[in-house]
Write the structure tokens for this entry.
Amino acid sequence: MERSNEIIGTQKIDDDILVASTLAEEEINEEEPPKRKLIVHKIAVDLEAVRNVIEKDKTRFFAKLGFLKPRHEEIECESVLLFYEPFLIAKANYFLDYYENKTYRTTVGDNATEVVVFGQTLKPEVMSERVKGVRKRSHKEIVFDAQERVIHKAIEQIALNRTGREIDPTKLPSAPAEPEPEKVLKECGEKARKLGVSLFNTLEDIICKRPPNIGRIVEEVFEVTEHAVVYTPIYEARCRHLKTGEIKIIPISGVTGKMLSL
């Protein structure tokens, strides 16, 4: 998928002070995403070809331990139906400029009784440690809390199936697109399955990973730069084991003619 120059969804937070313990309860305000791109793959494999694939390999789908297969006549293909399966493809950027809580330990002189750092008076602690069971000479340390300013950037390309589960985008078949995708889906009716995924909520959960030790957020930006829904044709073959009654639904890509499970 070529990168789009159009910013099609942006979310931004500017906070003066956020306490780390309450950050998990904060939510990024959602903006209504612009119209997404719709792609419907053309069918390249007909029903007869799919039936031949199923008939040839149907015992493999019921194999036990990978090699104990039933006899060919024990498996019956009851039906083969065509559906259009939707997938959400998106590319998103996440930017987080924040202060990270840190604790520092610094060795001081053995004779030091106090250390003044930026007007704060610190009392040294006497420390001792063992290395491979041998006690080392004790020393004094001061311990103080500080914040480091950190910038975190992430660019992610995400592919989700219709239930919201993340999949490998490289496994989605590539095929020529229908010139009138809305018309094709309308003609398919219920054979075109519904996409039950909230774009921003799902992508936010995957990409926007705030570290647990944030002290203060300077700026937080989440933007979707590409957004498309891809419908690909999938034949579902219903096969039954005549001796056990076991039923398996075998998905076959209408683009490649191979088994497809995403």
Observations:
- The chain has three helices and twelve strands.
- Helices lie at 47-57, 181-188, 199-207.
- Confidence is low (pLDDT under 50) at residues 1-27.
